[in-house]
C-alpha cells in the first residue's frame, strides 16, 4: 500500500474521543508522518496537533488527508464532502478507513479527476480471500483481545511488538484494522471481510514463519459485543494464537453505546476467550492483562493494578503508562 505522507488528519464533527481512535493511533505511533489536524466547527475532540486547513497543509508538503474518525457503522456523512472536495482540489489524496467507499460520492470522484489526487479506501481489499483451514502454521502468534471495542488492543499490540524487539526477539506487528494498516503499511481490515472468509483472512495476515518468530496480531471487537462478536471470533480462530493478552478499560461497566450489555469479569472474559481459541490451538494461554488506565490517577492505578494481578496471577500493564515489558517477559518465558 502506497500512501502519500505526511498526513493531515480530518476529525469531522467528532464529539466522542473513542471514535477518533484512527487519529490518536496515527498521532501516537507514527508522529513523524502527521503534520496536523482539521475538523468541522461542531467537533469537540482534538488530537492536540496544529490546526491546519487542507490548502495550507498541501502548501506545507502534506500528501494525504486521512479520515481520523471511525464512527459506528463506518459511514461517510454528506456533511464531510465539501471539506474533502477542498482537500482534493488542493492536491491531497483522501485516505479513508470507513466502510463507505469514497467513490460512492460523485463530488469526490469529480474533484479527484480535476486534481489528479487519489481516493484510497484502506478498508476494502481487492485480493481474493480463502476460507479458514485451521491448519497448524509454523511460527508463534499472540493476539490482543478485549472486553469491549476501542480500549487499547492496537496500542497493546504495537507496544508489545516494540517490547519484544527490545528483548532481541523476532516479532512483527500484524494489522487487522484501518489504523493499523495506515501505520504498518500492510494488513487486512478484518471487519470489512465477508463472514465466510474472516478466519482465512486472519490466516493470510499471519502466515507460516520461522519457529522463533512472533506475529503480534491486532485484535478487533470483543466476544461480548452484540454487533461485532462475529468479527472477533473469526479473527480468533484464524489467528490460531499461542497466547492472548486481554485488554480492558476499568472505567466501563457496560459495552460502550450499549448500556444494556454488562461487561464480563476479567477472569470470565479470559476463560471464554481461551475456550473459543482452543478450537484451532488447544495450547493457547493468557500471558497478561493490558489496562487503559487513562481515567485513573497514579494512586488509583497502582491499587487497581495490584488487585487485578493478585486476582489473576498475571502481569498487568498499561502500554502508555510504563509499557508492557512484563507481558513480553511472560510471553517469552
UniProtKB/TrEMBL annotation:
UniProt-listed SUPFAM superfamilies: P-loop containing nucleoside triphosphate hydrolases (SSF52540)
InterPro entries: DgcN-like (IPR011669), DgcN-like_C (IPR035086), DgcN-like_N (IPR035402), P-loop_NTPase (IPR027417)
One Pfam family from the record: DUF1611_N
Residue ranges of domain D-glutamate N-acetyltransferase-like N-terminal in the record: 46-124
UniProt domain D-glutamate N-acetyltransferase-like C-terminal: residue ranges: 132-327
PANTHER family linked to this entry: DUF1611 DOMAIN-CONTAINING PROTEIN (PTHR40690:SF1), GLL3100 PROTEIN (PTHR40690)
Identification of the protein by name: Putative NAD-dependent epimerase/dehydratase family protein
Organism: Roseateles toxinivorans
Amino acid at each position: 500500500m502506497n500512501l502519500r505522507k505526511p498526513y493531515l488528519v480530518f476529525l469531522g464533527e467528532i464529539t466522542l474521543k473513542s471514535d477518533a481512535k484512527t487519529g490518536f493511533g496515527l498521532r501516537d505511533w507514527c508522529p513523524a508522518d502527521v503534520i496536523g489536524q482539521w475538523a468541522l466547527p461542531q467537533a469537540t475532540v482534538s488530537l492536540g496537533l496544529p490546526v491546519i486547513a487542507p490548502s495550507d497543509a498541501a502548501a506545507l508538503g502534506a500528501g494525504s488527508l486521512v479520515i481520523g474518525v471511525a464512527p459506528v457503522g463506518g459511514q461517510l456523512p454528506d456533511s464531510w464532502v465539501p471539506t474533502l472536495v477542498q482537500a482534493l482540489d488542493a492536491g491531497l489524496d483522501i485516505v479513508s478507513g470507513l466502510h463507505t467507499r469514497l467513490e460512492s460520492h460523485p463530488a469526490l470522484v469529480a474533484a479527484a479527476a480535476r486534481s489528479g489526487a487519489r481516493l484510497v479506501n484502506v478498508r476494502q481489499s481487492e485480493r481474493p480471500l480463502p476460507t479458514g483451514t485451521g491448519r497448524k502454521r509454523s511460527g508463534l502468534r499472540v493476539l490482543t483481545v478485549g472486553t469491549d471495542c476501542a480500549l487499547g488492543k492496537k496500542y497493546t499490540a504495537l507496544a508489545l511488538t516494540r517490547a519484544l524487539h527490545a528483548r532481541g526477539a523476532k516479532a512483527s506487528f500484524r494489522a487487522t484494522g484501518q489504523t493499523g494498516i495506515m501505520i504498518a503499511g500492510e494488513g487486512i481490515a478484518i471487519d470489512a471481510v465477508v463472514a465466510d472468509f474472516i478466519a482465512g483472512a486472519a490466516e493470510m495476515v499471519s502466515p507460516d514463519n520461522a519457529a522463533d518468530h512472533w506475529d503480534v496480531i491486532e485484535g478487533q471487537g470483543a466476544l461480548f459485543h452484540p454487533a461485532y462478536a462475529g468479527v472477533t471470533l473469526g479473527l480468533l480462530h484464524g489467528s490460531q494464537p499461542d497466547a492472548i493478552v486481554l485488554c480492558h478499560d476499568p472505567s466501563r461497566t457496560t459495552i460502550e453505546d450499549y448500556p444494556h450489555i454488562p461487561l464480563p469479569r476479567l477472569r470470565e472474559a479470559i476463560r471464554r476467550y481461551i475456550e473459543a481459541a482452543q478450537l484451532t490451538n488447544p495450547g493457547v494461554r493468557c500471558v497478561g492483562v493490558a489496562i487503559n488506565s487513562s481515567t485513573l490517577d497514579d494512586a488509583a492505578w497502582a491499587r487497581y493494578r495490584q488487585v487485578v494481578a493478585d486476582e489473576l496471577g498475571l502481569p498487568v500493564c498499561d502500554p502508555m503508562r510504563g509499557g508492557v515489558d512484563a507481558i513480553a517477559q511472560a510471553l517469552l518465558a
